[in-house]
Amino acid sequence: MTTPSPINWPKYQHLYEEISVPAKTVLLEEGKTSRYAYYIVEGAVRLWFNNKGKDTTFQFFFEGEGVSSIESFRTGQPSMCTIETISAARLLKVSKENLDLIIDSEPGFRANLEGIIFHRLLRYTKMFIAQIRDTPQERYEALIRDQPHILQRVPLQYIASYLGITPVSLSRIRNKLQREK
């Protein structure tokens, strides 16, 4: 996922705020209404939800990507997820009203956003099917193959959660794959 372009972002500086936050900063809490979307200048962010008392990660975002609880941001309904920084982050924060002004002012921006949303939906669909079809080891191997940057930037506990397994199971899979090399 990339940033929509070619937007003349300095032209809209008065409509967004640049913020710096430490790791583990909650940008949006599950059950609250999303009032902001974020663009990641530096850092890593995850989306997760409370699954019967267990933290379940389902998406990671990095530099050059936008993040929000799209459903809540667009509809005003409570968010189904929490948005939290994994590392210290520098973000551009924009309200729905101001983002709508930018969208209305920039030809082609809406189409770019629709493309990003479609890409995100495609990722969710692949993840959903993999959770049903693939073994935990197959899901981990796909992560190594398709998104190795996640393994370099994200703590193992969040990767295990993302894969739908415990950290102990992830450790076993990693050890098994190391022995097979």
Brief sketch in words of this structure:
This protein has 181 residues and is an alpha+beta fold. It has helices at 70-75, 96-105, 109-133, 136-146, 148-153, 156-163, 167-180; strands at residues 16-21, 26-28, 36-42, 45-51, 54-61, 66-67, 82-85, 89-95.
Rg over CA atoms, rounded to whole Å, is 17 Å
The strands making up the biggest β-sheet line up spatially as: 1-8-3-6
What is the tally of helical segments? 7
End-to-end Cα distance: 32 Å
CATH fold call of the domain at 1-105: Jelly Rolls
Helix content: 40-55%
Question: Count of DSSP E strands?
Answer: 8
- Main sheet makeup: 4 strands, antiparallel
CATH architecture of the domain at 1-105: Sandwich
Supply the helix-strand structural class. alpha+beta
| CATH class membership of the domain at 1-105 | Mainly Beta
Could you state the oligomeric state of the chains shown?
A: single chain
CATH-level-4 superfamily name of the domain at 1-105: Jelly Rolls
Q: Which word captures the global form?
A: elongated
In sequence order, what are the helices and strands, one letter per element?
A: EEEEEEHEEHHHHHH
